[in-house]
Amino acid sequence: MCWKFSRAMDKNRISVALLLLLLTFNSFSSAQFPTQLIIKEWVDQMQQDLVNLAETATGVKNFAQIFLDKKQYFTVQTNNATQLVASAARNIEELLHNRSTALERLAEHAETLQAKHKWKNEFGEEGEIAYYNAKDKLDSNDTEGRKNGLRPDFKMDPAFKRPVSYNHTAVHIPTDIYDGSTIVLNELSWTAALEAEFKRNREKDPTLLWQVFGSATGLARYYPASPWVDSRKTPSKIDLYDVRRRPWYIQGAASPKDMLILVDASGSVSGLTLKLIRTSVSEMLETLSDDDYVNVVYVSVPSDLSDDYVNVVYFNNKAKNAAESCFTHLVQANVRNKKKLKDAVQNISANGMTDYKKGFKFAFDQLSQVNVTRANCNKIIMLFTDGGEDRAQGIFQEYNKDKKVRIFTFSVGQHNYDKGPIQWMACTNKGYYYEIPSIGAIRINTQEYLDVLGRPMVLADKKAKQVQWTNVYLDALELGLVITGTLPVFNKTTTDDVKDGSKKKGRQNQLILGVMAIDVSLDDIKRLTPRFTIGPNGYYFAIDPNGYVLLHPNLLPKNPKFQEPVTLDFLDAELENDIKVKIRKDMIDGLKGEHTIHTLVKSQDERYIDRGIRTYTFAPVNGTDYSLALVLPEYSLHYIRAKIGDTISQAKFGIPPPGDPDESERVTGPWLQSYEPEKWGGQGVTEWRFRPSPAHPLAFISIYTEFSR
């Protein structure tokens, strides 16, 4: 009651102050407008009144004295930032190591299962392969006309935030793939045994989230089983998901690459063919990750173009760079750069004639540049054309004699041009030839090159097997923001050579079967970075080798796109300065360090900017490419720890706390209501909840304990 009365009085004080100010202002006539000095006096007076009111209402002046008077009940501790970062980094390292171990078991088991599988060209009754199709409707008992359809018993799971079944796996097959094809049926057959290994992994670690095998055929089998989408909520939604287009699959299926996309924009590709080429190039860009580098080069006549395009090659007369200056060489295939390239491709116009020699010469020059950042792994040229008579044989002999650059060629559109020359280009340069006659063939044919690039990985076997962790992205099954550990799964079978009617053991199969993956939620990682001693404006953040944040208070994507990773650079997440640039570089290089800097700080509501002092302490997360940092303001370098160990037993027996001036004042009632063991940063710390009366000497400890939570 007193509190309500006090609040009412405070409101009345403000109202009276504003009324007096208005009356004072009205006392001046229009001819006697207040001077600047008078207005400043009013502002100063209002400022002082507001400060006094705030001090009175909050009791801030008395707060320090209270802590001095009750100092026997607490100690002042120092936040050792180096130890805090090292401890949190170890916890994250342990979490990711456990996930990596589970991933390695799954990949090894999958390779063994596939090697033992006997290929079938024909399947009898559909009942031979029973599986749950994740796209089956929840509100219907039919399983899309299949006799072999399973219907799991789903239960809501708080960890996954959706209904799941731990008794089964679920299978997702892309809409544009026939689920009754021989390849898919064989995939369904041998991957069914993965269910047992998924379950064993969960028995060893019940905190595991999605375990997924993404096949090179497009099939995805994941555990635990869960409906893909709830058709009752989104009845008209079209399923365009293809596991081979997901960021984690792209990263795990091939090594980093330098790609130069060469587009024929001569007059013969006008109309539908040009539209198909534009769409094909855009889809090709979607197969690249942040580990790749790319540029787009296309054919056109120079006379009617300005210098405002993306890196352009004119095949007929000369090579010329048009576009932004930063696109005069290969650029990182991040979300921003890919968008710029896609937009520029839409501006391509068809005219002139084709000269492959000029185009390939320029492409090889781009790939051979040594003074720019590149992937320095696979080098490939993608040619999109409607065909031509020139093989550019002399250019390949001069620039690609050792076949270090693979050439992939795509015949686009329906036409009668000779395809022989572009087939020869691909076969001679360790590439592959594809045909894209219509829009329906684009998605499949623009991603199959990954199988070819995966061959060296299969031959390298264990040397190429390394768990990779992705950028942050939005989980397709509504888990929120996650990172994913990936590991390629290789085909360990051998091909048989048949000569003179006798069968001989041939070469090892060079196909990649797919990618195994395990998700880690960002919420799980955040729990390993304890915050209860660092105050409201202290925070942890982590970055990956590209400088993108894994953890950060400002990593709050408002409308994350399902198809794209969530990429926020550290220098974009905070107000940039020169020292932060160095911090970013040192963290990417895996160094340890600490910097105290003056920097501009945004308020949590993003409405104000203030200048403050922050200490950045960072260290690598061993076993991963991530680096973790802790940021502390000056007022978070210390914290208060309550001395509550001795008072617990006293409270139980009604003994007054030590130093209590009035021993007759005993604790009446269960002021020590409850205690809870909580886990902070992986270490058990017992915190006690007090419920003393407001007048009790230990009341401020209760307030602090609750505040620290």
From TrEMBL:
It is found in: Membrane. Keywords: Calcium, Calcium channel, Calcium transport, Glycoprotein, Ion channel, Ion transport, Membrane, Signal, Transmembrane, Transmembrane helix, Transport, Voltage-gated channel. GO terms for cellular component: L-type voltage-gated calcium channel complex. Its main location: membrane. One of its GO terms (molecular function) is voltage-gated calcium channel activity. InterPro entries: Ca_channel_alpha-2/delta (IPR051173), VWA_N (IPR013608), VWF_A (IPR002035), vWFA_dom_sf (IPR036465). Residues 1-31 form the signal peptide. The keyword NAD does not apply. It holds the Pfam family VWA. It is a single-pass type I membrane protein. Residues 258-453 form the VWFA domain. Belongs to the calcium channel subunit alpha-2/delta family. This is VWFA domain-containing protein.
